Amino acid sequence: MNEISRPNDLDAFWMPYSDNRYFKSHPRMLARAEGMTYWTADGKEVLDGTSGLWCCNAGHGRKEITEAIQKQAAVMDFAPTFQLGHPIAFEAAARVAEVTPEGLDRVFFTNSGSESADTALKIALAYHRARGESQRVRLIGRERGYHGVGFGGMSVGGIGGNRKQFGAMLPYVDHLPHTHIPTMNAFSRGQPKYGVELAGRLEDLVALHGADTIAAVMVEPMAGSTGVLVPPKDYLQRLRQICDKYGILLIFDEVITGFGRLGTNFGSERLGVTPDILTMAKGLTNAAVPMGGVAVRNGIYDAIVGGAPDGIELFHGYTYSGHPLAAAAAIATLELHRAEDLPGRAKALEPYFEEAAHALRDLPNVIDIRNIGLVAGIEMAPRPGRPTARATDVFRKCFDDGLLIRTTGDIIALSPPLIAEKSHVDRMFGTLSDAIKAAA
């Protein structure tokens, strides 16, 4: 076993989305990873039930990705992409375009899902301006939506806890209702039956604001970070119809649902709706190097680039857009997905995973279970006056018993690497079952 490093000071690092005070008095450290497994600093195995943070779809420590990064670092560690280029960024974009939905063949590279969300919104606004419709400035999101932590994505997003510390958001933003209807859709398998009418609320927003003021609607095909909210049947199709009717761009945030998670390259393919703009990150590089991207319908690119005067067409970008090491990681990751058919593996395992998830239905305090692809959300009744406490106890018990899960509120989310096997599923849900019982 490789030597595992141990930190000697926890004070300097201000941890993101963390209870810093609790963690630094009760640290749980991950120090090494391979395949389906993490190891703690003291050498204990922890089964990864969350693909790290929805991102290591091909499992950990894949030598093909590591070697590609090492090789590229030895050739060229960095090159700018402002008015210059390097071949591997163009190759990575072409490889991404091979797996994106048909017609979305232009790829703008970012460094995260948050940057992808803000980039997509800016492209939507630039597109309408290029077409002479600069009055289209309104952006529509959805309650309980998560689009990262930039001010654009946070404004269009609809998770109150992410917004309350930061005052005013962007202007000209409105929200659709979320699609979670527990009284009608509890314990759904795949897409729930009820809720298509909620897409029709977009018509209400059009009537309120005026169709010619709305630039784009941004939604997650499956809302992951808010607790696995699967879209009702025909809901996304109805959104697509309304957007087409009024000339509104439809943006899918596929940071979680991309790269095989739902048994297809992207969630839009599984759910049968093609957006105008699609955001990605996480699984793009298997999280080995930070990278995100935005794929756009070819006509959007043509309108912005072809319709601009000489010079820069879109005043937007990042120092690390198309970073050489990230591009190398993306190419290697996409080759792994193709060679090992990771979306196909997820699709094949889905029925077994679904049965294991719904077998928890009769456990204490479990009030809902929902799933699609290799994602499951298990919702528990909160403790009176102490929301999130029950799920937090389950998280800590699972970790101590060798399983990494994800919690949001009192919802547990599982999203294992797509290389998972039935034995891993058995262990995941067995450990989780014991933890739920212990937290009763």
Describe this structure in words.
- By secondary structure, the chain is an alpha/beta fold.
- It has two domains: 20-61 and 341-438, Aspartate Aminotransferase, domain 1; 66-340, 3-Layer(aba) Sandwich (Aspartate Aminotransferase, domain 2).
- The protein is built from 15 helices and 15 strands.
- The protein has a seven-stranded mixed sheet with strand order 4-10-9-8-7-5-6, sandwiched between helices.
- Helix 6 (151-156) links the parallel strand 5 (138-142) and strand 6 (173-176).
- It is globular.
- The two termini are 38 Å apart.
Notable features of this structure?
alpha/beta; Aspartate Aminotransferase, domain 1; Aspartate Aminotransferase, domain 2; 7-stranded mixed sheet; 4-stranded mixed sheet
Quick overview of this protein structure:
The protein is an alpha/beta fold. The protein has helices at 20-25, 51-54, 63-75, 87-97, 113-130, 151-156, 182-185, 201-209, 235-246, 267-271, 298-306, 324-340, 342-358, 389-400, 422-438; strands at residues 30-34, 37-40, 45-48, 106-110, 138-142, 173-176, 214-219, 249-253, 277-280, 292-296, 366-372, 375-380, 403-404, 406-408, 411-414.
| CATH-defined fold name of the largest domain | Aspartate Aminotransferase, domain 2
Largest beta-sheet characterization: 7 strands, mixed
Shape: globular
Q: What is Rg?
A: 22 Å
CATH class of the largest domain: Alpha Beta
Strand % is 15-25%
Number of helices: 15
Give start-end ranges of low-pLDDT stretches: none
Cofactor: pyridoxal 5'-phosphate
GO molecular function, one term: adenosylmethionine-8-amino-7-oxononanoate transaminase activity
Family: Belongs to the class-III pyridoxal-phosphate-dependent aminotransferase family.
InterPro entries: Aminotrans_3 (IPR005814), Aminotrans_3_PPA_site (IPR049704), PyrdxlP-dep_Trfase (IPR015424), PyrdxlP-dep_Trfase_major (IPR015421), PyrdxlP-dep_Trfase_small (IPR015422)
